[in-house]
Amino acid sequence: MLASQNFNGTTRHLREDSDSDDEVLASTLVEEALRDDGDYDDMDSAGGGHQISGENIQQKLAAAATPLDFQAPLQNRFDSYDNYCSLFHFILNSEGPVDLELPTVGSFSHYVDTPMGKMDATTYYWAWDAIDEFIYQFNSFCSHRNAVARKEGAGTEEERKLLSENPQTWGCYSVLNVLYSLIQRSQMNEQLAAIKKGQDPNEVAGEYGSRPLYRMLGYFSIIGLLRVHCLLGDFTLALKTLDDIELNKKAVFARVMAAHFTTYYYVGFSYMMMRRYADAIKAFSHILVYVSRTKNFQKNAQFDSVTKKNDQMYALIAICVALCPTRLDDTIHASLRDKYGEQFTKMQRGGPDALPIYERLFLSACPKFISPIPPDFDKPENNVDPSKHHLEIFMADVKNSMLAPTLKSYLKLYTTMDLKKLAAFIEVSPEVLRTQLLVYKQRSRQTRWIEGGLLEGETINTSDLDFALQGDLIHISEAKVGRRLVDWYLRNLAKTY
């Protein structure tokens, strides 16, 4: 979603490998075009319980990958949860691997080669749809339950009673248990580790992992864990789940456009919340460039759902670039200026006027965070809105960064400067300024994404300015790369002969 892509460089590196990716991109376009995103039947017939028979297996398989209506009644959400429980129980706890005939994807099926072997495209499309819808319904249910518990105009007294009496329905533990169980049953982490070492994954796949159904469910469950941990606010663990997946356009997840988009969205957002803005910008830039290159080729329902989230992606990259100025791809930069021209300028300038813009963009672009525990229906005032909670955390960091543009403008004027003198210029106390300088220095030094690991790397200076504190004295050094005029003259002289 497994050859490696190195995010060490800037957007230039994305352009350099674009030629080698054209074949993969074309292959993905053809596969997506073959897929028919038609609607399945309603889920009214999805039954509860953990027993499953041959008569309703196809019904449950189809329902597992079918989007639930946004306005579906609460009872339908309970029935859907029972359907998932019975289906995953059947898949995970049957005596030996189950052999299921999956619902047909499109008017006909086709086979594709993946790093994990040749398989029917129906398998990985259905596996992604099932995992994706499973997590979406979990997220939607938890958000609705929390809103009802806070009495924010959502839900009736009957719903409040039903939700309070069933705290384990769509519980966080049960969802995580399904995802981890699918990964473990398929030996997916072991298979991915073997592929990275150039070994045959079938040697470690085991009885279950060698089956395409278990293999793809396990693979996409890793992407699901990234998403769930991010929704729960554990951004470090979210990224840690991808240790064995190398992010590039040749990966398995990249063959399903929604999976490709989802992976980079949550990776980028996790980096942003960890204050690793340079890495977040690279992740967002990658997927936005990809979408801009494919928007004229695909008009199916899946692509339409992806393009609807483009504004969210641009809002997030606007936040990151304002906090960590970086050169962007020309296409992204132009779109960013069109969408958020004046707002983006205010964010870059900083100051009190920029704070409401940060808040508005964050709330419009962040995922719908959820609480890991059921809400307290007896004391609505004790229930915190998870999205507002994470907004407060994020805005606290933004406020610490507000002085960065002003600091940079003053520091560029001097090679040495007294801390108290600079504090007087910007009208803050020396103690506050010392803290702001440390925050600014941390901002300018980011951690690289290196080949073979998301969380390992070396520090690099992403700013053209560096400084050091020696007591109350600031030593400033500015790194400027001058024009190489000798090379220019040599090139032009060669043209004259």
Automatic annotation (TrEMBL):
TM region(s), chain numbering: 217-239, 251-267
UniProt biased composition (Polar residues): 1-11
GO CC annotations, alphabetized: eukaryotic 43S preinitiation complex; eukaryotic 48S preinitiation complex; eukaryotic translation initiation factor 3 complex
Residue ranges of every copy of the PCI domain listed in the record: 279-473
Compartments where found: Cytoplasm
KW Transmembrane helix (keyword) present: yes
Region (Disordered): 1-23
Single Gene Ontology BP annotation: formation of cytoplasmic translation initiation complex
GO molecular function, one term: translation initiation factor activity
Tagged with keyword Membrane: yes
Major subcellular location class: cytoplasm
Key words, A-Z: Cytoplasm, Initiation factor, Membrane, Protein biosynthesis, Transmembrane, Transmembrane helix
Family that this chain belongs to: Belongs to the eIF-3 subunit L family.
Protein function: Component of the eukaryotic translation initiation factor 3 (eIF-3) complex, which is involved in protein synthesis of a specialized repertoire of mRNAs and, together with other initiation factors, stimulates binding of mRNA and methionyl-tRNAi to the 40S ribosome. The eIF-3 complex specifically targets and initiates translation of a subset of mRNAs involved in cell proliferation.
PANTHER family referenced in this protein's UniProt entry, alphabetically: EUKARYOTIC TRANSLATION INITIATION FACTOR 3 (PTHR13242), EUKARYOTIC TRANSLATION INITIATION FACTOR 3 SUBUNIT L (PTHR13242:SF0)
Subunit annotation: Component of the eukaryotic translation initiation factor 3 (eIF-3) complex.
Identification of the protein by name: Eukaryotic translation initiation factor 3 subunit L
Organism: Choiromyces venosus 120613-1
